[in-house]
Amino acid sequence: QFVFHTYTTGFSLVNGNWTVKSEEYSVQQKQVLLGLGAVSYAACIGAVPIFFMNRYTRKSPVTQLIVRKLLHAPLLGLMSAFTVAIVRSPEFENGIEVMDRNGKVVGVSKKAGEKAVRETALSRAALFGTAFFLPAVFMYFVERVNFAKTSRALASMRMMMFTVVLTGVLPVSLSIFPQCGEIKREDLEPEIVSSTEETEFFYNRGI
């Protein structure tokens, strides 16, 4: 859990919108500290269900199915979205650059930053939630029919299924929201729309 969230949080930090600036503190230092806190929290939350199942509940087949296989995927997707929102929080706190259709920067918008972070968090949750949920469901039926005779064959099939699902879901999750996001005029701050007659505005969403 810790290694996984460390990697995804670092990826979010590197591929965020880097137009945010502040004279009071280093945005990069703040994001690193927030990221460490988010990673630790997400790793603990991800491990809590299995910890409580092993310590306080009976290991019935239904409990193991829910906690070890089905609950893991949505929880991982939720925590992935959480780490994105935390590590990129300076973007909606300070705003990101908004451009017109010609690429000219017309201002810095907190609302655009909030929209960019929200879209990225949703796409990350969809990616990892689906990538871990579908293989878990598939492997449950494989184990029920005893299709794989050995543990090695079962592990190989699980890895193959995860790779296939991740390969298919990755481009879909990246294309849910465009890289160059669009925001309506009425959704921007009054000081930005008052300085231009443009009706379409764009921003870099990040990955």
Percent helix: 55-70%
Shape: elongated
Query: Tally of extended strands?
Result: 4
| Order of neighbouring strands in the sheet with most strands | 1-2
Kindly give the count of domains: 1
How big is the Rg?
A: 21 Å
Straight-line N-to-C gap: 21 Å
Main beta-sheet annotation? 2 strands, antiparallel
The parts where pLDDT drops under 50 for at least 5 residues are none
- How many alpha or pi helices? 8
Task: Report the average pLDDT across residues.
Answer: 83
Strand content: 5-15%
Structural class: mainly alpha
- What's the order of the H and E elements? HHHHHEEHHEHE
Describe this protein's structure:
The mean pLDDT is 83. It is built from 8 helices and 4 strands; from the N terminus they run H-H-H-H-H-E-E-H-H-E-H-E. Strand 1 (96-99) and strand 2 (105-109) form a beta hairpin. With 207 residues, it is mostly helical. The protein has one domain (1-95, 110-178). It has helices spanning 2-14, 27-56, 61-70, 72-87, 89-94, 110-145, 151-175, 190-193; strands at residues 96-99, 105-109, 180-184, 200-204. It has a two-stranded antiparallel sheet with strand order 1-2. The chain has a two-stranded antiparallel ribbon with strand order 3-4.
